[in-house]
Amino acid sequence: MKGALLLPFRLGTRNRFFPGGSLPLRSIGLLLVGLLICLALYLISVRTIGYFHAQNELGIILSLKLLQMAWLMLFAMLIFSCMVSAVSALYLSQDNEIVFAAPVAPTDLYFMRYVTTTVYTSWMMMAFSIPVFGAYGRVFAAGPWFWPLLLFCAVAIPLSATGIGMLLTVALVNLFPARRTKDIVVYLSLCFGIFIYLIFRMLQP
Amino acid sequence: MSSDDAILAVNGLGKKFGDFAAVHDVSFTMRAGAIFGFLGPNGAGKTTTIKMLAGLLKPDSGTITIGGHTMAAAPLTCKGMTGYIPDRPYLYDKLTGHEFLQFMASLYELPAEKFARSQRFLELFDLTPWQHHLVESYSHGMRQKLIMTSAFMLDAPLLVVDEPMVGLDPKSARLVKELFKEQAGRGRAIFLSTHSLEIAEELCDTIAIIVNGRLRCLGTLEELRRQASRSDSDLEEIFLELTGTYELQEVIRALRREEP
């Protein structure tokens, strides 16, 4: 049943990017633009981290602190992004009427929403963060385990963030109506963005 | 009819939204092969009742029994025995009609030979040439016909239909009526919520009228005539009488008199 529920997501994605089983110019263009952005991010990151790394001991500490900050920020952003998306996916989605009326167990429904929300909210952030973290691997001359572990983290981090985000969403919807919860989460995300901006502006060297 | 041989038995159904009782103490039964018309003015509680029958809303009180299974105790069994056609169905724009039917068949774990039945309905609805086109290119009527195909294809013992004719051209509307009659003839029970009194009068062997969340009357057209004390009246007059809006007819007559 889990596979059946993911059918619209799977076939819809295929029809969007490979209509009629072909690879149209639009999809090739999107892929190339994506790869170019990844390449640019990788080169910029290698240059920046390399610069820090070339400094004395403080530079290495600084680049490692930046790595920690990047992971934490990414994780927090994924949680907020997931919460906004999860309210819509779980409670306001237009296809709820069809799938809820079908003989589908609630656990299967939650699983389907979990998988689709994870992909929708985090594919872009993870795709563009891999070149940045890959740059760390290159500058620090990471061992062979770094690369598979990086890919593992790129999957595990969004899955964990979505899990936490959906849990918080379900808890909030038990307190407030779904539409109000969505507004609350959007405002909270906005506050989080402003908070991050202010933190960066107030950072003292 | 006892509730034992009923396909659908609703007993003391109630639903509140805050302090507002949308549905209050609604009870009726439906046997196999019956077409049950569910009428009522806007905001009377029709959609809330339908959503409870389809398992989309949890009742605050009362029971829904489908094919001997209660919705509260065995929701998946009940849902598996019910085909549901919403009034404004959402279809996945990026799926083709055929893929959408495949999806619905897999949700209900329909075997391949039963899924093959969908071709007959697609043909009847003139959707065969469109079945491999994306749903985003379908008109409202075509979408309605596709969701009907998916419900008929399931061949469920109970079919719950909310406003079946919205967006359908006269040919398709005629076809849907005939299909309802055919399905009922094959022993399927059809619960039909509609604003069209003509459809209810033509198709339904039992009619219920709900007003302010309560069943105002329930019975055959003849029984409704008796309840409204209007022999030889059509369903429109009975509906207006029983829903307390008969004075509207006086207003209509007055307006017609004023016409130049």
Task: Please write out the topology.
The complex is a heterodimer of chains A (205) and B (260).
Chain A: H1 2-5, H2 7-17, H3 25-54, H4 57-92, H5 96-101, H6 106-139, H7 146-175, H8 178-202
Helix pairs in contact in A: 3-4, 3-6, 4-6, 4-7, 4-8, 6-7
Chain B: E1 6-17, E2 20-31, E3 35-39, H1 46-53, E4 61-66, E5 69-70, H2 75-80, E6 82-85, H3 97-107, H4 112-115, H5 118-124, H6 140-154, E7 158-162, H7 170-185, E8 189-193, H8 197-203, E9 206-211, E10 214-219, H9 221-227, H10 235-242, H11 247-258
Parallel strand pairs in B: 3-8, 3-9, 6-7, 7-8
Antiparallel strand pairs in B: 1-2, 1-4, 4-5, 9-10
Distance between the termini of chain B: 53 Å
Strand-and-helix sequence of chain B, N→C?
EEEHEEHEHHHHEHEHEEHHH
**Largest sheet geometry of chain A:** none
Our Rg estimate of chain A from Cα atoms comes to 20 Å
Shape of chain B: globular
Beta-strand content bin of chain B: 15-25%
Query: What spatial form of chain A do the alpha-carbon principal axes imply?
Result: globular
